[in-house]
Design a protein that fits this description.
Structural class: alpha+beta
Mean pLDDT: 87
Oligomer: single chain
Strand order of the largest sheet: 1-2-3
Number of domains: 2
Low-confidence stretches: none
Number of helices: 2
CATH superfamily of the largest domain: Aspartate Aminotransferase, domain 1
CATH topology of the largest domain: Aspartate Aminotransferase, domain 1
Helix content: 25-40%
Distance between the termini: 38 Å
Radius of gyration: 18 Å
C-alpha cells in the first residue's frame, strides 16, 4: 500500500515510475509508457538526455535551489531574456 495521498480519491494507485529514457517512462515491472504529460520542463526534451543531465549537475554544483518567491537566478534570467526576444511588441516579462 502506498502512503502517498492520491490526486483522485478512490482511484487505483498509479504505476511507480523507476526510470526514464527519451520520451518514455518505465514502471517497476518494466512496462514502457509514452510520457505525453508535458508536466515537467524537461519532459519535452526527453528523459535522461545527456545534455540535460550535465546542465542539472552543473547547476546543482553552484546553487541547487532558491525559492522564486524571494529570489531570481541566473538560468531563469537567461531564459527570460531568450523568450522575450521572440515575444510580441509590448511584452517585456515572462513567467
Amino acid at each position: 500500500m502506498s502512503h502517498v495521498f492520491p490526486r483522485a480519491i478512490g482511484s487505483a494507485p498509479p504505476p511507480v515510475a523507476v526510470r526514464g529514457e527519451g520520451p518514455y517512462l518505465f514502471d517497476q515491472a518494466g512496462k514502457r509508457y509514452l510520457d505525453a504529460s508535458g508536466g515537467a520542463a524537461v519532459s519535452c526534451l526527453g528523459h535522461s538526455h545527456p545534455a540535460v543531465i550535465e546542465a542539472i549537475r552543473d547547476q546543482v554544483g553552484r546553487m541547487p535551489y532558491a525559492h522564486t518567491g524571494s529570489f531570481s537566478n541566473e538560468p531563469m534570467e537567461a531564459l527570460a531574456d531568450t523568450l522575450i526576444t521572440d515575444a510580441p511588441e509590448g511584452l517585456d516579462r515572462v513567467w
